[in-house]
From TrEMBL:
InterPro entries: Dihydro-acid_dehy_C (IPR042096), DiOHA_6PGluconate_deHydtase_CS (IPR020558), ILV_EDD_C (IPR056740), ILV_EDD_N (IPR000581), IlvD/EDD_N (IPR037237), Sugar_Degrad_Dehydratases (IPR052352). This is Dihydroxy-acid dehydratase. The lineage of its organism: Bacteria, Pseudomonadati, Pseudomonadota, Alphaproteobacteria, Hyphomicrobiales. The keyword Cell inner membrane does not apply. Belongs to the IlvD/Edd family. GO terms for molecular function: hydro-lyase activity; iron-sulfur cluster binding; metal ion binding.
Amino acid sequence: MSEDEARGFARGLTNYGDKDFSLYLRNSFASSMGYSREVLKKPIVGIANSFSGFNNCHRHFPEMLEAVKRGVLLGGALPIEFPTISLGEVFLNPTSLKFRNLMSMDTEEMIRAQPMDAVVLMGGCDKTVPAQLMGAASANLPAIQIVAGPMMTSRYGEERLGACTDCRRFWGKYRAGEISGDAIGDIEGRLATTAGTCAVMGTASTMACIAETLGMSLPGTAAIPAVHADRLRAAEATGLAAARMIDKPIRPSDVITEKSVENALRILLALGGSTNAIIHLTAIAGRLGIPVSLRRLNQLSDETPVLVNLKPVGANYMEDFFFAGGVGAVLREIKPLLHLDCLTVTGDTLGDRLREDAGPVDHKVIASAEQPLEPEGGLVALFGNLAPGGAILKRSAADKGLFEKEGRAVVFESLADLAKRIDEPDLDVEEGDILVLQNAGPRSDSGMPEAGYLPIPKKLSAKGVKDMIRISDARMSGTAFGTIVLHVTPEAAIGGPLALVRTGDRIKLSVKNKTIELLVDDDELERRRSSFRSPSKPASERRGYDKIYAQEVLQADEGCDFAILQPVRT
Ligand code: FES
Ligand code: MG
């Protein structure tokens, strides 16, 4: 077989012991799709399409797909779309994170099993981009990401609305009795009104910016609104770039390196981006054997300013970020902090990209490095006897008045316990207390949902309390805010120290020292540990994916990936 024949449909032939027969069979079935002999000789760009009727954020993918295909054809290759599972954030139970690894496996195996020479990854909603990058990194075929792009904002009276930070803000007002049931009904209909991902710097937007910074998507594409004509042009350019990656292959392992991962952490910090992104970036890097250390995160955080004034931390929305200059403008501001020799999917380095003319920047949305919004990064990792493996606090979204504080723990043993008691009028809780939620981590029955944003108990919110220190092994939506300590590792369900906290214990948070301490003496903790029983259903009582998940999922500091999906160490 000539080199040309080993491409396109001939790639990875099924082995019947007779190669020519295999090729003949493959071509005859491919011909049934109406391809001419000329077309069958072309290299193939696969397009992993995560369109789904259960994913509102991807509803414009049919139009984007056409543009990607156009670009692939322009580049002289044959575009072939294939479906993978999709993860529509708000429609998945118990939590979308549980299915991220499943989508990554689907993506990886279909890239590997089907004949293609390069792949375009079409994703957008929170877990889809990490899943696709994880899968593509493991398959390691030339790959390029195109994201859905953010939704446009909407309006309610004089207020601009964008999912989902405003969802939470108005829900808080409704809970506090400040707005009526009719008003919240009207707002419900106006929060999310176009195709695209959440309109703020939540997880989807953060991951889009990370994909661009890593060099896995084309420059300038992360922030283009979903419905903007530029998004279709970006899709076309992505298809063309994918076709060009075939002859001089650029693989995910060439692009995702220790240095580009560090650049990605920098942009995450400068964005004041989502806490979930730490988990996802750790999982993506982990597929290529690159560790992401939370102690390194803290070093980077101390020297990376917050520059982007977007909700939930600031005032603006993703469409403003796009018009203000997008990811490129932020990267230029932090250029001295970046590794510029990192290769990107275009074949240029990050440095090459940043040499090009920037265009105008709106500094109301993207601050300059000289006058940052905050001198230090948006995220910080905390360590201490309550979280030996680390915990995450989004300090840019937290109340600084609570940064150095000791308080009494009020413990909820599970999500069910929280739901049952949080609004009880006689709940034993005061304003200065610290709310603790146990058993909401990756191995818990709830699978680490975005439940770390514990509601303020009704009896306190009615008195005007807006924020309290809240600690859990859960995650938090990238669109949420508050003094919230997340991802406590190791988690309660496997007997981490979080499981040993009892109501009345004292807990001390110090953001300055980056510590979170349970002020209970070691003997007492040992006594409690000896009577620990995990409340999680054991793997032996589970089946199917649920069982694989329970057996394989790693802790948050390893990206909640599966142990079996880690690279084989030789
Ligand atoms: Fe898809 Fe928010 S629900 S990005
Ligand atoms: Mg989200």
